[in-house]
Each structure stands twice: as C-alpha cells, then as structure tokens.
Specification:
This protein has 16 helices and ten strands. It is elongated. The chain is an alpha+beta fold and 448 residues long. The longest helix has 45 residues. Helix content is 56%, strand content 16%. The relative contact order is 0.13.
Length: 448
C-alpha cells in the first residue's frame, strides 16, 4: 500500500511540475509588450533566464533574446546568444513522412526546430551585428551563411523555397567593399561587383544597385565615405490556427479524396469517418499579418534625399512559405488522419463483435462497448491534433536599405517616416560622422 501511495505521490508531483512549466507563448507576452514600449534591453533581460535552459522552447528564447539585444544596441551580447541559436537550429533534415507524423502529434511538447526563414534570419542578424561592430570579415562570413542556409533548405525540401535573400547579398557586397577600401584587395572589390550584378538579375529595376555597381568600379580613386541606413519596419506576422480540419474547403476535399482511395473495413463508412475527425483542428497553422504603418523612411543630408528600398519582405516570405507547406503537406496529412480514423472505427467494430460473442448476442451491450472503444480512441487521438503556434515574435515585417555617399565630415540627417498614404508620420534628426572611405551604419526600427 505504501509503495502504491509513494508512486501516486511521485506521479502527482511530476504532473504538477510539468503543469508549472510555462509555455513559450505565455512567457513571451510580457517581454514583447516591453519591447513595443521601446524597452528593448529590459525585454531581453526578462528572457535571459530561459536561454540557457535546455528545453523545447530554447531556440525560440534565444532568437527572441538575441534580437532584442540587437535592437538594444548590445551587439556583442546579441551575437553570443545568436551564435548558440545558429548551432541549435542546425538539425538533421526530416522527411515528409516524418513531418506529417510530427504534425499529428502534440507539437507543443516537441523541440521547436525553427521555420526556414527564421534560420536564415539568425545569420542575417549576426551579420548586421558584426557590421555595427566594425567587424567586416565576420559580417561577410555570416551573410554568406545566409545563402548557404538557403541552399541547405533547397536540398532538404527538394525545391526553391524562395529566391536568394537580396538584403543579405547587398550587405555582403557592402562588407566586401569595406574590406577592399581597407586593404586595397581587388578580389574583394570584384566580389562586391559580382554581388551587385546578381542582385540586378534578381531585381532588374533596382536603381540603387545600378548606382552601387557603378560606384564600386570607381571607388579606388574615391575618398568619400557613406551613410548606410538599415531600416526594419513594422511587426512580422504570427501564427494562428486555421480552425477545425474540415472547415477548410481545400482540406475537406483532400479528406474526401483520401476516403475515396481507401478500401473501407466492413461497417466503416465515409460519414462515420467524417464524424470521427470533426473534432480535429487543422494541424498546419497560418500566418496572420500584424501592423506595419511605415512604407519606408527618407533620409536627407545637405540637400540630398534617399528613400530606403525593401530588400527582404519577411511578412511575405513567412506567409508564402507556410502556404507552400500547406499545399505540399495537405494531401498527406488528410490521408494519415483518414487512416487513423479508419483504424479507430474498426477497433470499435471489433470490440462490438467480441462483446456480442461473449455476451450471448446482447446487441445493446456490444453496441455500447463498440461505441466507447471507437469514440475513446478517436477522441483521444483527434483531440491532440492542434497546430504549433510558436514563432519568432519580435521580428520586423520588412528589411530595407538606403545609402548616401558623403565627403568626410560631421553631418545632421533628417529622417522622415513615410506612411503607405505618402504622408510623413514622424520626423527625427540624427548627428553622425563620416570618415575617409568609411561607412557609418544606422539601424532603425519601427514598432507599429
């Protein structure tokens, strides 16, 4: 008896401890709120206790804390966190069947692997941090890692998830320009030129790249410096549920198609399958757009104006990737769920038949047992099918860039925040210095 009581106490203690573990989506609320009030460092400090704890959400906490430290201007601290995050994100690829299996399990207890675009952005922010620190060699390495990550994703998925990251290519070119100006390396200058040519193939109408391609050729004889503005606009989308599995017409059609391709066991009908899975939530989430009121910023210095250009649309990339995944996995998810429903219903019918034979044909009892077995296994299974709504919350919606070449000296820039209606939402002024052949980076983020 004592042994039984001890075991029960141990079980309840473990259950209580598990219940007390706070979920990522609960933890991130307060730091995110502080961040949107402009308290980046305080927000990051709230997450520091979580980044060194091994667990299912560690990667997310590292990405969030690393980004918040980045926005607080703590670039070295940010890199310490993001370098660890990059290592955790380098997991073995999984097959489509493994992906589907994971979707149909309780994903909230599984380690978060990171969305493809999130893994890419870890290296992007490492590179930007290094640029802000003046460590151009390290910056170039991280921006190259962005395109290495894209190639890895292509290999894993067997398709192009999205085109090369133009922001990373642009910053790679800038890093190599800096190295060329500092060392006189013609290899670095040529590398920058190749990057600009590739950017123009991806975005033929990008006037900024055309100007910069021309400039990199003549920069050997040019002693001017440059103001480089990195603008991060708005809030990235976050994951939400698509609702019940059968509420989505495309998934409903996929389920019906999967049922039609099955040899149904005796007594199992299409209607009973649809009834059994009606409780299930769609396991593949979707991204919901949040706020982004600033289309771009304009920077004015000594009568010269430049507007930032969007080079990476995180909002679009996140939503497109998720919809691509939905298209790729929907049929296999439907087929797997239908198979599980058939097994559940068949188990109920088998239990019913067994009970009938053991109870002298008592049809009422056998029907009850069959219903309980079938419904029990089905409800237990399908009630756990829920989408994983974890994602990197504090990212911006867009990454933009603007550049102005200037003679060495002290300057004041007027920065205007332009809304999508063309109106100026806000104006600020910033003092900065330009050195001979140097580049001064400023990093701006809007939060609404």
């Amino acid at each position: 008896m004592n042994r039984t009581i001890s075991a029960a106490v141990a079980f309840l203690t473990a259950l209580t401890a598990f219940a007390c573990v706070r979920d990522y989506r609960e933890v991130i609320n307060a730091p995110e709120e502080k961040f949107y009030k402009g308290q980046e460092y305080e927000a990051a400090r709230m997450l520091l206790p979580y980044i060194n704890k091994a667990g299912k959400d560690q990667l997310l906490f590292m990405m969030e804390a690393g980004y918040l430290l980045h926005m607080a201007g703590k670039y070295e601290d940010s890199n310490r966190v993001l370098l660890k995050a990059a290592k955790i994100a380098q997991v073995m690829p999984i097959s489509i069947s493994q992906e589907v299996g994971a979707l149909l399990a309780d994903q909230t207890v599984k380690n978060y692997r990171g969305e493809d675009f999130e893994k890419v952005l870890i290296h992007m922010y490492l590179g930007i941090n290094y640029l802000m620190l003046g460590e151009h060699d390290e910056a170039a390495v991280e921006f190259k890692a962005v395109n290495n990550e894209l190639q890895k994703i292509k290999t894993e998925k067997g398709q192009d998830r999205y085109k090369q990251n133009i922001m990373a290519k642009y910053l790679t070119a800038i890093a190599h320009e800096l190295r060329a100006d500092m060392t006189g390396s013609e290899d670095d200058r040529e590398y920058a030129e190749v990057e600009y040519r590739q950017i123009l193939k991806l975005r033929p109408g990008l006037a900024m790249a055309q100007r910069d391609l021309f400039q990199v050729r003549r920069s050997k004889k040019d002693n001017t410096g440059e103001l480089v503005v990195i603008f991060q606009g708005g809030r990235s989308p976050i994951k939400v549920s698509r609702g019940k599995l059968l509420e989505d017409p495309a998934m409903n059609s996929a389920v019906n198609l999967a049922i039609g391709g099955q040899n149904l066991a005796k007594g199992v009908t299409a209607a009973s399958i649809m009834t059994a899975i009606a409780i299930a939530e769609n396991p593949i989430p979707k991204f919901k757009i949040r706020t982004n009121k600033t289309k771009c910023i304009t920077v004015s210095v000594m009568g010269r104006d430049v507007a930032t250009e969007t080079l990476e649309n995180i909002e679009y990339t996140a939503m497109k990737n998720m919809e691509d995944d939905y298209e790729r996995l929907r049929g296999k998810v439907a087929a797997s769920i239908v198979t599980k429903a058939i097994v559940s219903l068949a188990a109920g019918l088998a239990a019913q038949e067994t009970t009938r034979s053991l109870s002298d044909g008592n049809s009422g009892l056998s029907s009850l047992v069959g219903m309980l077995v079938g419904a029990g296994t089905g409800t237990a299974l399908f009630a756990t099918i829920k989408p994983d709504l974890r994602c990197w919350h504090t990212l911006p919606a867009t990454l933009q860039l603007g550049r102005i070449r200037l003679a060495p000296g002290k300057y004041t820039a007027r920065i205007q925040y332009i809304g999508y209606n063309g109106a100026v939402n806000e104006t600020k002024h910033l003092n900065f210095n330009i050195k001979k052949k140097g580049k001064h980076f400023i990093n701006i983020r809007t939060l609404d």
